[in-house]
Write a structure and sequence with these properties.
InterPro entries: Beta-lactam/transpept-like, Peniciliin-bd_prot_C_sf, Peptidase_S11, Peptidase_S11_C_sf, Peptidase_S11_N. Belongs to the peptidase S11 family. One of its GO terms (molecular function) is serine-type D-Ala-D-Ala carboxypeptidase activity. With 465 residues, this protein is α+β, with helices and mostly antiparallel strands. It folds into two domains: 289 residues, 3-Layer(aba) Sandwich (Beta-lactamase); 142 residues, no CATH class. The protein is 30% helix and 24% strand. Strands 2-1-4-3-11-10-9 form a seven-stranded antiparallel β-sheet, sandwiched between helices. Strands 18-19-20-16-15-21 form a six-stranded antiparallel β-sheet, with no helix packed on it. Helix 3 packs across helix 7 and helix 5 runs antiparallel to helix 6.
Amino acid sequence: MTWINDIKHTLNKKCAGLAACALVLALAGAPVLAPAQALADVRKADVVYGQAVDARGLSVAQCPSIDAEYAFVMDKDGTVYFERNATSPTQIASITKIMTAVVALDAVASGAATLDSTVTVSAAAAAVGESSADLQEGDTMPLEVALKALLVPSGNDAAVAIAETIGGSEDAFVAAMNAKAAELGCIDTVFENPHGLDDGEFAGDQHSCAADVAKMAQYAMKNDTFRAIVGGGDTAIVVNRADGTKPTIELESTDELMDYYSNAIGIKTGFTALAGPSFAGAANNGDKELYAVVIHSTSEAQRFEDARELFDWVYEHELDYRLANSAQTATMTVNGARTEVPVAAEVPHTEWIDKTVKATLADPEASVRIFDLNGNVSQSLEFDEVTGDVKAGDKVGTVTFKQRNATIATVDLVACEDVAAPDLLEGIGIWWDRLFRGLSGQPQVASAVTLNETPLVVDKTAVAA
């Protein structure tokens, strides 16, 4: 039940100070003990970067240890890093409110509403019960304020009020939620109400899956208003009461991950008996934004730990892979500037029989961010037909880098030296030489040589250990 979640959350925060003091006193004379090592919950069927843990041959230490029965992690561009029962249907409780906010904000984007549109709390909205923003029948407020009441304390009252105001009716709004889910490519999502309650009078077929929730979160976090609300923590709102008063309502965030994880940037909690402790969270370490969904974890605190574990696991397994790796170097002079560069290849000059052009990458310092558990990097080189006078910096080919058959970078090969074309007399000599070589079956141009290497990708966490 969502009201249980909110009561626990409030009590946990209010009692935190007292508990901390008691703990300090209790430990003052006690010996310091090392923290207990948590038992890892890693499953062979868990999917890492599109392939099962068992098929990849990953060790327990290389995989995230989480308690949630359903989980999914992807970045803002849609790259999926981890899945556990990610497409299996399950209740998602108040995580539903992500879609409630999405539909309301889409109405703003389309011009059908504004953030200043008045939301009115009906008797039905005020009476929905359980997780609440303490709204009363007759309260009015701008839509932006109502969204705060929806997302910060997980107000079921705000959910119904928004649905009735924006949709004209709750049923019409829920239909828009389902239409949006289909538009986002959700594969197994059904909404029957805008708040996520799933028992008693709200029992039915409302469900989703971790993969679908991630798509909702990804879309929602593109909206600046949504990002600001879910990432803002505790706040206060002012509503207009039917009796003419304007009370201030303190809203306490249910997202405790932001209290202790510096990369956390919010989103939405959920809890019912059927969904269990659940959380859709977002994190940004300055380089990459991730969305983690954990459903049916083992406790309210553990759902946040599950999300943190997944975020850190992705961040810890990302590395910058240098593309140019050659033991041979050359001095490259372009516009008077001399630079020592790695020689990636020797490319045949087709007007000569025995001459090649030393080549490097267009950016010899280039690197690409990769996920180390996804395996080694391979390369393929394609050489242009090189003719005429070649100057340092001229394109002479292309290198494509792949990891597990997926292209991760395509870069130009450029000459790192000047090579002149043969003059008239040299050209005549080469013509006769090629004539005799053709008769004897000898090569008529130099062979291409690949000097660039692709070092093995090493799990950096294993190296650190």
